[in-house]
Structure formats: structure tokens, C-alpha cells
UniProtKB/TrEMBL annotation:
Species lineage: Eukaryota, Viridiplantae, Streptophyta, Embryophyta, Tracheophyta
Superkingdom per UniProt: Eukaryota
Name the UniProt record assigns to this protein: Aspergillus nuclease S1
Gene Ontology terms describing biological process: DNA catabolic process
Keywords, alphabetical: Disulfide bond, Endonuclease, Glycoprotein, Hydrolase, Metal-binding, Nuclease, Signal
InterPro entries recorded: PLipase_C/P1_nuclease_dom_sf, S1/P1nuclease
GO MF annotation list: metal ion binding; nucleic acid binding; RNA endonuclease activity; single-stranded DNA endodeoxyribonuclease activity
Length: 301
């Protein structure tokens, strides 16, 4: 396990440096979410995260944030496959935990679960818990990870992205990001991340406090993020994107802002959650633990 993660990290680092353009909430989206989060970590969080990261991540959470995607199809890990999404009933355009997350086996349930591992320091491997939380925080912000059950979150909506055959899920995972890298960011993920950090500081700064906070001071509130996602999926992702259509400039230019904002929100909320978990203030931590348990967050798998 350790060795394969190490090999995998090495190949991702290579990818990141060599073929920016080919990167994609595929690898690129997750990298961006975690890289943005890192720049919002408080001091205690930085220390705690570095302690949990494998040495070969070189202190970079972003370098290992796609690990759950890499393992999810392996026989010993395929029980994690359903933890990456929370599909919703066709055309309902809303999300409900009890309906869409049976037995906690979905992306929101997984976030509750692994956050409680980190808060309570259960005996579960906390390195893995950190990587799962970091990855699923990205996934829950991708609108089609809360897409319709009937088309598997857009995976069965086969269409064209410009002249390329693909499906709607991949458009939202990768294609919009890839096209943006080429058109606006000099084919460089780090240029894009830099631009998002700038937007966070100067454009979205007034929104950031409301993105960070959770109702009732919960540690994390993935149900809210999932509700936002299916709302965006209905209003933007599915709109004008039926099977057989060709998506081009109009779709790209009108949806890019949403993809960028969701990546930024994912990063901000990952940082806010980890900051709350690793807060130095033990009194705050204690009351946070109570809140977490009061809010039905304890779902150990
Ligand atoms: C925790 O998980 C990571 C990643 O799977 C692995 O490399 C590491 O050896 C594990 N640590 C322990 C103590 O099992
Ligand atoms: C996981 O893989 C095993 C072996 O290939 C298979 O029997 C099982 O149905 C898979 N489970 C899931 C949830 O995909
Ligand atoms: C764009 O990328 C190329 C290749 O990496 C680099 O040489 C060039 O300086 C970059 N341009 C800008 C404006 O950053």
C-alpha cells in the first residue's frame, strides 16, 4: 500500500510538471482544491497535516489529494467507490441525506465519517482519513457528483465537447478545466490556481466568511454543499446538454465561472474544516466534538 502510493505520487508529480494541459476534478481539480486549501491553513493545521502526510508527499497535501480516485477500483478498496458521489432522483433537483445517502455510503456520509475520525482520533489510519476528507470535499463541490441516478451523474449523457466524444460528467470533471487551462492559463495549473487565489482575495473576499461557516457551528456541513451542487447541476450542468449535443464556446464560457467558484469554495471549506478540527483551543475542540456528535455526524464504517 505504502509503496504503491509512493509510486503513484511520483508519477503525479511528474505529470503536474510535464503535461499541464492534460490535467484535469480529475487530477487537476482535486489538486487545485487542496492547493487553495493549503494557503488558508492556520499554523496548527499546517503542523498537524504535515505530521499526517506521508514523507514522499513533501509536505504538499495537494500532491496526494487524488489518491482515493487511484485506488477506488482496486478489489481491496472498491467498497470506497460509492463514497465519491451522492446521486439524486431524476429531475427532483434537490438533495436529502436520508434519501440520497443510504447507510452513510455516499460522499456526504463519508465526509462526516472521516471528519469524525480526525476529530476523535479513532484508531483508523488518520493519514487515510485526511486524504479521504480532502478528496471528498472536492467531489461534493462538483455539481454532477450529486447528479441524477438515472444517468449516473451525467456519465451516461454521451455528447461531444467541441469535436471530442465524451460524456457530461467528464465535461464537468475535466474538460472545462482543460479548455480553461489552454485558453486562459498558459496551459499551467499553477497559473490557474494563482488566479483563483487572486479572485478569492479580491473578488470573492466578501463571500468567503459565509462559505467557511456552517449552521449551528458544526465542524463540517456537507449536506449544504451537496444541496448547492444539485441546484447548480439542474440550472447549469444539465441545461442544454442532452445526449447527442455538441457543447462548445457558449457552454464553456457560461459554465467556467461556476466550475472555478466551486473549486475555490471546496478549497476554502476544506481549510475551514481542518482549521476547526486542528484548532489549538482545546475548549473549542471539545464543544466542537459535542456538536459533531449532536449533529448525527458519527457514522463509523
Ligand atoms: C496509513 O495509510 C497510508 C496510506 O494508505 C500508508 O502509507 C501508511 O503506511 C498507513 N499507516 C499505518 C500506520 O498503517
Ligand atoms: C468489488 O470487487 C469485487 C471483486 O472484483 C466484486 O466482487 C464486488 O462486487 C465489487 N464491489 C463493488 C462495490 O463494486
Ligand atoms: C507560458 O508557458 C511557457 C512554457 O512553460 C513559458 O515559457 C512562458 O514564459 C509562459 N508565459 C507566461 C506569460 O507566463
Amino acid at each position: 500500500m505504502g509503496l504503491s502510493l509512493r509510486t503513484w505520487v511520483a508519477s503525479i508529480l511528474l505529470l503536474t510538471h510535464l503535461v499541464h494541459g492534460a490535467l484535469s476534478w480529475g487530477v487537476g481539480g482535486h489538486y487545485a482544491v487542496c492547493k487553495i486549501a493549503q494557503s488558508y491553513f492556520e499554523k496548527n493545521t499546517l503542523v498537524a497535516v504535515k505530521k499526517l502526510l506521508p514523507a514522499y508527499a513533501n509536505g504538499e497535501l495537494a500532491a496526494v489529494c487524488s489518491w482515493p480516485d487511484e485506488i477506488k477500483r482496486r478489489p481491496e478498496w472498491n467498497w470506497t467507490y460509492a463514497l465519491h458521489y451522492a446521486d439524486t432522483p431524476n429531475y427532483e433537483c434537490n438533495y436529502e441525506y436520508s434519501r440520497d445517502c443510504r447507510n452513510g455510503k455516499c460522499v456526504t456520509g463519508a465526509i462526516f465519517n472521516y471528519v469524525s475520525h480526525l476529530v476523535f482520533q479513532f484508531h483508523y489510519n488518520l493519514t487515510e482519513a485526511l486524504l479521504f476528507v480532502s478528496h471528498f470535499m472536492g467531489d461534493v463541490h462538483q455539481p454532477l457528483h450529486e447528479g441524477f441516478k438515472g444517468d449516473q451523474g451525467g456519465n451516461n449523457v454521451k455528447l461531444n465537447w467541441y469535436n471530442q466524444e465524451t460524456n457530461l460528467h467528464r465535461v464537468c470533471d475535466d474538460k472545462i478545466i482543460e479548455s480553461a487551462l489552454k485558453k486562459y492559463y498558459n496551459s499551467s495549473l499553477s497559473v490557474m490556481i494563482h488566479s483563483l487565489l487572486n479572485k478569492l482575495e479580491y473578488g470573492w473576499s466578501n463571500d468567503v466568511p459565509s462559505w467557511e461557516s456552517c449552521p449551528g457551528h458544526q465542524t463540517v456541513c456537507p449536506n449544504r454543499y451537496a444541496s448547492e451542487s444539485i441546484d447548480l447541476a439542474c440550472k447549469y450542468a444539465y441545461k442544454d446538454a442532452t445526449t447527442g449535443t455538441t457543447l462548445g464556446d457558449y457552454y464553456f464560457l457560461s459554465r467556467l465561472y461556476i466550475v472555478e467558484k466551486r473549486i475555490a469554495q471546496g478549497g476554502i471549506r476544506l481549510a475551514a474544516t481542518l482549521n476547526r478540527i486542528f484548532s489549538s483551543n482545546s475548549e473549542a475542540r471539545c464543544s466542537m466534538k459535542l456538536r459533531l456528535s449532536c449533529n448525527g455526524g458519527i457514522k463509523v464504517m
